[in-house]
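Summary of Year 1 activities. Much of the first year was spent building the evaluation harness for sequence design. The harness presents a backbone, in tokenized form, and records the residue chosen at every position. We chose the following record to illustrate the format because it has been used consistently in internal testing since the harness was completed.
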């Protein structure tokens, strides 16, 4: 299934995140090249011209893409040559704390932004990023893009779930509601055991079975918030009430199903399990769901479950 094209704009970053999935520099782009100057980026875009013209979304990632010295020129090139293509900027938000960049971004058509924020306070976020002051800069960056964005520009806040922050996710959601109530969504992304995350596995590694009780406590708040999404989660790893919030967010070649999954009634709606999770964390928290649940589908592979209905006691009443 088409997940959209991802272009690494810049292989450098101003954070040193403990759970970063990138390999150590230098790393090659998808075409094997190690150059990230303007001309090399444009050449890579042109190689994918037919795919971009026929696609619906382009992810600009890194490193930190906004550090590219010609980042705005790259955005303008995409707008000019692929005017109908949605652009999703994946950023740590730090350069956006300076108002000049958010002002320029407001002029880019079809641009949405996903900003990483990994905790409700500087202590947690800065420990994860390995960069003192990154929390304050990211928060200022989010404030600025909300201030300057034009109609249609979406803002998503992304938190990668790790051993360091998973117990604080309820507090994090409350923080977002109070500090940034106008964001379009909040995404909780379960950690991928790749890159630096493997080297730091004792610090950041967490199992689905560890996080599920936290999610169970968060069910009322997440349902009331309505703007939340859950990325990288198999269905059995989260409370059934939250199934309508799950999205398939990994390419097919990165996921697997274990033998127990064949006994699950809802495998066809499930993302599966990241292969490297199974390698490094095992099968903990993975079990077939046998309950009878009425599912309203969304006719969308990436968001297959729109609503659910299950017989539960009154205090478990479900909404979507």
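For this record, the design step produced the sequence shown next.
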């Amino acid at each position: 299934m088409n997940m959209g094209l991802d272009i690494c704009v810049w292989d450098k970053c101003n954070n040193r995140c403990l759970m970063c999935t990138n390999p150590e520099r230098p790393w090659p782009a998808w075409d094997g090249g190690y150059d990230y100057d303007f001309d090399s980026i444009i050449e890579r875009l042109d190689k994918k011209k037919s795919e971009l013209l026929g696609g619906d979304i382009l992810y600009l990632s890194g490193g930190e893409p906004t550090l590219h010295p010609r980042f705005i020129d790259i955005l303008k090139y995409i707008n000019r040559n692929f005017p109908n293509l949605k652009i999703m900027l994946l950023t740590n938000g730090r350069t956006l704390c300076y108002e000049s960049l958010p002002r320029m971004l407001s002029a880019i058509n079809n641009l949405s932004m996903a900003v990483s924020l990994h905790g409700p306070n500087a202590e947690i976020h800065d420990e994860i990023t390995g960069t003192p002051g990154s929390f304050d800069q990211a928060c200022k960056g989010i404030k600025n893009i909300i201030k300057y964005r034009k109609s249609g520009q979406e803002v998503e806040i992304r938190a990668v779930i790790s051993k360091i922050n998973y117990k604080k996710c309820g507090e994090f959601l409350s923080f977002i509601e109070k500090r940034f109530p106008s964001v379009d969504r909040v995404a909780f992304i379960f950690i991928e055991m790749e890159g630096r995350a493997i080297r730091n596995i004792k610090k950041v590694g967490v199992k689905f079975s560890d996080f599920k009780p936290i999610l169970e406590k968060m069910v009322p708040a997440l349902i009331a918030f309505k703007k939340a999404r859950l990325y990288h989660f198999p269905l059995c790893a989260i409370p059934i009430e939250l199934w309508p919030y799950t999205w398939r967010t990994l390419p097919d070649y990165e996921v697997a199903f274990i033998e127990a999954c064949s006994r699950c009634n809802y495998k066809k709606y499930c993302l599966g399990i990241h292969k490297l999770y199974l390698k490094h964390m095992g099968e903990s928290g993975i079990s077939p769901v046998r309950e009878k649940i009425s599912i309203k589908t969304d006719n969308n592979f990436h968001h297959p479950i729109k609503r659910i209905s299950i017989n539960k006691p009154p205090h478990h009443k479900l909404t979507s």
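The CA atoms of residues 258 and 283 lie 8 Å apart. Quantitative recovery figures across the full test set are reported in Table 2.
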